[in-house]
Specification:
There is one protein chain. By secondary structure, the chain is of the alpha/beta class. The protein has a domain at 2-29 and 97-208: Ribosomal Protein L4, Chain: A (3-Layer(aba) Sandwich). 34% of the residues lie in helices and 14% in strands. It has seven helices and six strands. The protein has helices at residues 20-23, 29-42, 102-118, 135-146, 163-169, 185-190, 198-208; strands at 2-6, 12-17, 122-125, 151-155, 175-179, 193-197. A six-stranded mixed sheet has the order 2-1-3-6-4-5. A hairpin with a 5-residue loop joins β1 and β2. α4 crosses α5. The longest helix has 17 residues, at 102-118. The radius of gyration is 27 Å and the shape is elongated. The mean pLDDT is 93.
């Protein structure tokens, strides 16, 4: 599959052949769904917790005698039916982590990238560099490349060369900067367009090829 390569002014320069093994892979919706659910589950902290009757303070003595009051027998004011009492069958700390083999995760990424490519959702740029961190310049460049849609912008590495690009995109609500080596299923499916500099394309090819 051939894709046009643009500069930051939106001018077409040439065409590049995308690796078929990555961008024309079989599309497996179930596998993408599994990878997405796994990533969202692994992001959960699992620190939710409520106190049981053994953990709340007070309730050490019997509120009234067992018999003769006409009221229901009670053993503690910290039983679950009392205000301020313990809770029962409520969340406890746990791990939501799900395991998924690396081959399956990478196959899900190839499938998602193939979907993007088939929908013309991949925009190649010869290079993405700003001389200074200016949100307006970054917003104008993205508007020329992808229009009014949301965009996930990949950078090949974390360095001073791309620091201005990263800081310029922080205040753009519909854009996100991500290292190409950190490409993941959630971000890939959350944005309409994928902006890929040629150096970042090399990183993806080395990682998923």
């Amino acid at each position: 599959m051939k894709v046009d390569v643009f500069d930051m002014e939106g001018k077409k320069l040439n065409q590049v052949e995308l690796p078929a093994a990555i961008f024309e892979a079989p599309i497996n919706v179930d596998l993408m769904h599994q990878a997405y659910v796994r990533q969202m589950a692994n992001a959960r902290l699992g620190t939710h917790k409520t106190k049981t009757r053994s953990e709340v303070s007070g309730g050490g003595s019997k509120p009234w005698r067992q018999k003769g009051t006409g009221r229901a027998r009670q053993g503690s004011t910290r039983a679950v039916q009392w205000k301020g009492g313990g809770r029962v069958h409520t969340p406890r700390p746990r791990s939501y982590e799900q395991a998924m083999p690396k081959k399956m995760r990478r196959a899900a990424l190839r499938s998602a990238l193939s979907v993007k490519a088939s929908e013309a959702g991949i925009v190649l740029v010869d290079e993405l560099i700003l001389t200074e961190a200016k949100t307006r310049q970054m917003a104008e460049a993205l508007n020329r490349l992808v229009g009014e849609t949301s965009a996930l912008v990949l950078i090949p590495e974390k360095s001073l060369e791309y620091d201005a690009v990263t800081r310029s995109a922080n205040n753009i609500p519909d854009a996100k900067i991500l290292l190409a080596s950190y490409l993941n299923i959630r971000d890939l499916l959350s944005y309409d367009k994928l902006v890929v500099p040629l150096k970042a394309l090399d990183v993806i090819s080395a990682h998923l090829g």
